[in-house]
Amino acid sequence: MKILETCIEMFGQTGFHSMTMKEVAQRVGISNTGLLHHFASKDELLFGVLGLDDERRKQFFLERGLAVMSIPDDVDEIKSLLKTLVTSELQPGLIELHSTLAAEAASPDHPAHESYRNRYANVVRYYTQAFQALAAAGEMKTDAEPEAVAGMFVALTDGLQLQWLYERDTLRLERNVSAFLRSFVKGID
Question: Residue 114's CB: how many other CB atoms inside 10 A?
Fold first, then answer.
């Protein structure tokens, strides 16, 4: 697990392409041969990270004070979660890795295709539940189906992250996400 945790940190700092196997081995404190015994290539490291089960991934992010996706019970908590989704913990390397892999994995013959297909299905399902809870509480400004709003929200956040990679100094994710949410959810500032 230490190897994969180190890879997640390194992806977040330098991105997938800039990271070397030698650097991973050094950071983990093992020899390059020792690393190759567990993972024969950077691709294997990547798929090891993608293959981490949800509990291990949640624990990793919680230990670093990063958001973990779980549906809050309170409407105000849902609004707060949606509004602050992309604000505080931007890690350029992880955003770049996700954006690149999401595009590459769209091809059905890409090794990460199923992983990303499942990721998008799960993320849309997660936000659908959040928007359903807001609709049930009378907090939505639209009669659009929660699943449609969830799909738009995921497309917006992924698209904004990609744009942010090009315009880090000028693009403000929170402002754009808040504008979207104000169009659909009552009480968003």
Answer: 12
Q: Which residues of 118-157 are buried (b: 16+ CB within 10 A; e: fewer)?
A: ebeeebbeebbebbbbbbeeebbeeeeebeebbbbbbebb
- Cα angle 61, 51, 82 (rounded to 5 degrees) comes to 40
Q: Which tokens is 158 given? A: 């992924």
- Summarize pLDDT for 95-116 with one digit per residue, the tens: 777 788 788 888 888 877 888 8
DSSP secondary structure string for all residues of 39-82? -SSHHHHHHHHHT--HHHHHHHHHHTT-------SSHHHHHHHH
Dump pLDDT digits (tens) for 155-176.
Answer: 998 898 889 889 988 988 878 8
All domains of the chain in start order, with CATH: 2-63 (1.10.10.60), 75-184 (1.10.357)
Phi, psi angle pair for 75, to nearest 5° = -60, -40
Torsion angle, alpha carbons of 51, 73, 158, 41, to 10: -10
Instruction: Write the CB contacts of 1 (distance below 8 Å, at least 6 apart in sequence).
Output: 56
The CA-based dihedral angle spanning residues 23, 27, 33, 38, taken in that order and rounded to the nearest 10 degrees:
-110
Name the amino acid, one letter, at 189: D
